[in-house]
Amino acid sequence: MDSEAGREEAALLNRLRTRLADFEKDRANLLSILRMIQETFSYIPEEAIYMAADHLDLAPSEVYGVATFYNQFKFNPPGKYPIKVCLGTACHVKGGDIILENFERKLDIREGETTPDRDFSLERVACVGCCALAPVALVGEAVHGHMAPSKVEGLFTRIQVEKEMAEREKRRHESAR
Ligand code: FES
After folding, report:
1. Which CATH number is 81-176 given?
2. Which of 1.10.3470, 3.40.1000, 1.10.10, 2.60.220 is the CATH number of 3-69?
3. 141 and 156 in contact (C-beta within 8 Å)?
4. How far does residue 91's CA lie from ligand 1's centre (Å)?
5. Which ligand 1 atom sits closest to the C-alpha of 133?
6. Which residues' Cβ are closer than 6 Å to ligand 1?
7. In this structure, are residues 107 and 155 in contact, taking their beta carbons and an 8 Å threshold?
8. Is-contact 82 103, C-beta < 8 A?
9. What is the pTM of this model?
10. How many CB atoms lie within 10 A of CB 139?
């Protein structure tokens, strides 16, 4: 985790302590608390599980058990570049799972995970509504159609260039202050 993400998360955890006080110490509030945590962080961090358990006087394993029961909750932070691979019927038929495998290999993570530097997260999604472009992958909001294993590498080169440009721009802004 880079220090910026670490600082941001520490601030959110502090804020979470205050927000938990709005919930009565009642087990019936567990689901609402988990939803609030997910909205705050876009995922459920481990520390937040402990804080919720502490607030409700429950074992952390119980809180974790409830959270994993519902697939609306995520346990990995979203990456700066969230990658989604469509595995709806049309994309599946055209080899969407091979595209997913290529991303997994390239990033050295499995679907549902985030790279340790939090640059990339990878997930499979159901039909994103552009089946004519199957197989489809999304990087952030950008749709990439007619994906092929050879295009995966090209996509990363493009992201790398965008990243370097954004960093250069950021440094330019900082030195202009
Ligand atoms: S199945 Fe992938 S876009 Fe529809």
Report:
1. 3.40.30.10
2. 1.10.10
3. no
4. 5
5. 3
6. 86, 88-91, 127-131, 134, 136
7. no
8. no
9. 0.76
10. 18
Smallest CA separation from ligand 1 atom 1, residue: 88
Domain ranges (residues) in the chain = 3-69, 81-176
Alpha helices in 21-45 (DSSP H): 30-41
Q: How far apart (Å, rounded) are the C-alpha atoms in residues 89 and 48?
A: 36
pLDDT tens digits along 10-23? 888 888 988 999 99
Q: If you compute the radius of gyration of the chain from its CA atoms, what whole number of angstroms results?
A: 19
Q: For residue 90, give the ligand 1 atom closest to its CA.
A: 1
Q: Per-residue pLDDT tens for 80-97?
A: 899 999 999 999 999 999
Ligand 1 centroid to residue 81 C-alpha, Å: 20
Distance 125 CA to ligand 1 centre (A): 9
Tokens standing for residue 106: 């390239």
Alpha-carbon 143 to chain mean position? 17
